[in-house]
């Protein structure tokens, strides 16, 4: 094997470093314990459930704190998979609280607080977390609250609406939603990848071809303008509408590969079409070669020069989760993917030896040595890598025909896809919704006074 020499070197390096790591991946019980510790460590960055905090979000946005709004959605999505794959329901109430608090006035994950700076990808990370909740049969919210499937449909509908799909560059979604934002003139892979991914998953769950038509159309457009290189299957970042998207920015992020690969796996699983099998196969072949040097997940565009920014600390975690799920939907990939995810997860925990706790994680997994910088994103990625090792025992994502019962709302989000200039007055419905969320929260071990004040702030 081509890799044998480097694998040997790696093993000895890992051996030295793991002496100091508290995380063991030796058996399923050890993996569950390690994941539990990492979930807890990640949530130390979250203060939204404390008195005066805003449920759902990590401290931010910059400069008020490190994290943008979308990262909260990514964190709940990670924890929904955590629950599904480990069986640990400790955080479920907190997840439901967070995911419901942020649904926004139109119940489509465009809460008024963030609409001024909202990207299609930001909104979709919450929508994809809701989709994971539906697919995994995560506990439903109370019946008068929007269901997980309905929330995912609402996000999808806002993005399928004509005002998000103009004719510049021959189609596709822009990165940002408000025209005044930096990035409104940019059409990129992550925005379109999220939309493709949600379309593929809604199609498999509901069997409604409106979704697969959009997924097909999005794939074709992304390939046509060269964001996916039709030969190598490299996925580039984006292009500017003022140049008809011919000025493709060729930087490659690992999550762009994984979001399309996971979507392709859903399309393949539901259609059994050879076309989707080939696309999936090429994406994972390219992804494993490019983003897993020495079989260890690496954010190649920024990690070597220490240039990764806060958002980028999370990408490898998505790759682990989505690649793990691909092995359920397209079992022919398991033989190639699973051993790599294992080596990569071992590397991830080998460097979780930092901070005051002696177990904080950095980003440079391949160094087997803590890199001196930790945060919610680094913890989230290490958690994702560890929990993904349990995929072999996990139930595959359900559909409405195989036990999925999440409440849908096929028309959700209609008419609310536009960013309004003026905030709507809070309706009685919003207030009732907010107090139901509050009541739900009383089940958590926390003071009523704290929650009441959150509700009052939320409705003001
Ligand atoms: C908030 O969540 C964290 C992490 O799950 C937990 O440790 C803490 O006890 C929670 N706080 C409250 C007030 O519920
Ligand atoms: C689709 O997913 C199911 C559930 O994991 C799996 O049993 C089935 O083999 C998959 N279909 C294909 C065509 O791989
Ligand atoms: C299929 O989805 C579209 C888009 O959300 C919706 O308008 C339509 O009513 C759905 N069809 C069925 C049969 O549910
Ligand atoms: C919007 O921001 C205000 C002020 O920080 C906060 O009280 C409220 O809870 C936020 N609403 C949401 C949905 O995050």
From TrEMBL:
Alphabetical UniProt keywords: Glycoprotein, Glycosidase, Hydrolase, Membrane, Signal, Transmembrane, Transmembrane helix
Transmembrane region(s): 432-454
GO biological process, alphabetically ordered: carbohydrate catabolic process; fungal-type cell wall biogenesis
Pfam (any one): Glyco_hydro_76
Catalytic activity: Random hydrolysis of (1->6)-alpha-D-mannosidic linkages in unbranched (1->6)-mannans
Keyword hit for Transmembrane: yes
Gly residues bias: start-end ranges: 405-416
EC annotation from Swiss-Prot or TrEMBL: 3.2.1.101
Biased composition (Low complexity): 395-404
Main location: membrane
Gene Ontology, cellular component aspect: endomembrane system
Entry keyword Membrane: yes
Location in the cell: Endomembrane system
GO molecular function terms attached to this record: mannan endo-1,6-alpha-mannosidase activity
Region forming the signal peptide: 1-19
Region annotation Disordered: where it falls in the sequence: 395-426
Top-level EC class: hydrolase
Record-stated family: Belongs to the glycosyl hydrolase 76 family.
Name of the protein this chain belongs to: Mannan endo-1,6-alpha-mannosidase
Native species: Purpureocillium takamizusanense
Organismal lineage: Eukaryota, Fungi, Dikarya, Ascomycota, Pezizomycotina
